[in-house]
Amino acid sequence: MKERIKTLLLFSLLGMSLFLTQKLWIQLPGRFVKFLDTTEAYSVSYDLSDMIAPNKYILNFGNKNHTLFYGDSRYHIWDDSKIVLTQVLGNESIKTDTITKEQYLNFKEERSLVFYFPEEINTHLLATTWGVKDPNIIAVTIPNIDEIYVYLGTSEPFFVFSNNNQYIMAYDIKIDTNSLKEELLKIEQSYNYDRYYSMREIYRIENDIYIPYQVENKVPIVYVSNEIATLDDKQKDELAERFFNEDINYIREIVENNGSTIYMHGRRSLKLNINGTLEYFHPLEDKVPERNLYISLSTAANFIKEKTSSHEGMYLSSIQNIESENNDLGYRLTFKYRVRGFPVFLGNREVGDYIQIDVFNTHIRSYKLLARREINLDLSTIINNKNIMSSYDILDKNYEYLLNEYLMYNNIRPESLEDNLAHLSAIDDISLAYYDPNLKDKNERLIAVWVISINEKTYAFNAYTGNLVFER
Predict the structure, then answer these.
(1) What is the pLDDT of residues 369-412, one digit of tens each?
(2) Distance from C-alpha of 67 to C-alpha of 101, rounded to nearest angstrom
(3) Would you call 362 helix, strand, or coil by DSSP?
(4) Domain-embedded: residue 38
(5) With pLDDT > 90 as the criterion, what percentage of the chain qualifies?
(6) CB atoms < 10 A from the CB of 396, how many?
(7) Do the beta carbons of residue 149 and residue 160 sit within 8 Å?
(8) Are residues 161 and 240 in the same domain?
(9) Most buried residue, 89, 204, 236, 374, by CB count within 10 Å?
(10) Chain segment 201-238, per-residue pLDDT in tens
């Protein structure tokens, strides 16, 4: 009898654990993408359209009820929205109107989605990457955008494309947004989100960034490891063969005193640094007198897909015009990545970003990668039970510090300051993220931080203590 009771208790505990697992705020990713994996089970398709993605999403439920997500892994809102937006950018009968900032802010109080991009994106390019053969008047009216609004209320559908202080409303009764309305309703009825408020509403200042009063959902504990630094000799050789498309017997190998390995084939070189970075270099072979962003992005996407297997959470964060010593014209593409839906900031200044590519139309001149991957942990250690501080609390705790930084940057004497909240109005962005100190090759724990951008500087504060972690 006792054994039967024990068995029933075990099944009950198992069922309860499965139920609680489903309730986790951040779902476990379906797969962990390894840098070296080429098996079908771990491969991730990476297309040009995957490059351009928002770095945050505002969901407006109406009645001053808002929430914010940093990635699309949970509900696939961006993937579903791209289908609708493709119709909008390719619809010949679309109509457009210019609206004011005040009108746009009022629209944000209606049921809607708002997508924020890390930098300006060319509208024509965005449409082209989604397969729109002949982008419509929207691409002409507003050539670059950094924000897209999708109205999901009870009236006729409309969209707003914006950049700085330009706001273009686009509408056509034939555009169907019902699937997005259903998704928004499903998220709202789950009640499994934190409420965000605009700083304009909280502080009565001219700033439309959204922050929470409190954060009830937990942030997963994440550990990462360097893949390059932990490769054995056979794995390094296989990697070199993949980059050069050549048998290792025809590739020259040099091992430096510090343990870094250099592979050379013709004029091309591949360096696997002991600090966990990979550097590939291929000098330009032909003259590139003009740059083409679409061709360059396509070349970069194909290179990432073929050579390194893409990271599931990577996204394009910046595009910079560059010029070679011989006046060839190209682009420097910088990528960041997310873990569990949150962006990751790297602490090592020497490494820079997750991926950096110099591309000249159809030619990759250089490629630099920090190959960090998440370590699979047991469910029992995946969530930190301690609540994080809200960004509102972070701003309150570090009020004096941020104010003094603002005064110093703008060369303002404290006694001449007219508005004690002026530094809050100057904030460009506040985001919840992970900070990767990048000090260990194996099992490096990422730190949950609130990242605040103000006056061309970035500050990261520990989300549990409120203490400053880094500034740059």
Answers:
(1) 988 888 876 544 555 667 899 999 999 999 999 999 999 999 99
(2) 21
(3) coil
(4) no
(5) 56
(6) 11
(7) yes
(8) no
(9) 89
(10) 999 998 999 999 888 888 888 998 888 888 899 999 99
Q: Give whole-number Cα distances, 42 to 64, 74, 94, 310, in Å.
A: 42, 19, 41, 10
Statement: residue 121 has pLDDT above 50: yes
What is the Cα–Cα distance from 383 to 396, expressed in whole angstroms? 26
Strands 427-436 and 342-346, sheet pairing:
parallel
* Distance, CA of 32 to chain centre: 17
Same domain, 367 and 445: no
Return the C-alpha torsion angle 454, 458, 464, 468, nearest 10.
Answer: -100
The length of the chain is 472
Buried b / exposed e over 59-88, threshold 16 CB at 10 Å, is bbbeeeebbbbbbbbbbebbebbbebbbbb
What span, in angstroms and rounded, lies between the C-alpha atoms of 298 and 364?
Answer: 11
Q: Which residue has the tokens 């679309």?
A: 94
The residue segments making up the domain with residue 259 are 229-374
Burial degree of 203 (CB within 10 A; 0-12, 13-18, 19+): middle
Q: Which of 374, 405, 431 is the last residue of a domain?
A: 374
Q: Which of 343, 374, 405 is the last residue of a domain?
A: 374
Burial 422-433, CB ≥16 within 10 A → b, else e: ebbebbeebbbb
**312 — pLDDT class (breaks 50, 70, 90):** low
What end-to-end distance do the CA atoms of the chain give, in Å? 66
In a domain? residue 218: no
- CA dist 23 and 367 (Å) reads 40
Residue 266 clears pLDDT 50, i.e. is over it: yes
Rounded to whole angstroms, how far apart are CA atoms 245 and 230? 23
119: three-class secondary structure by DSSP: strand
Q: Structure tokens of 57?
A: 């999403």
How many CB atoms lie under 10 A from the CB of residue 50? 19
Phi-psi region of 32 (alpha: psi -120 to 50; beta: other; left: phi over 0): beta
CA distance 449 to 464: 8
Q: Looking at the domain assignment, is residue 180 inside a domain?
A: yes
Q: 318: domain CATH number?
A: 3.30.310
Confidence (pLDDT) at 259: 86
CB 350 within 8 A of CB 86: no
Reduce the DSSP state of residue 49 to 3 states and report it.
helix
166 plus 54 within the same structural domain: yes
Residue pair 301/51 in contact by the 8 Å Cβ criterion: yes
User: Above 80 in pLDDT, residue 46?
Assistant: no
CB 34 within 8 A of CB 227: yes
Q: Which two tokens stand for residue 101?
A: 């900032």
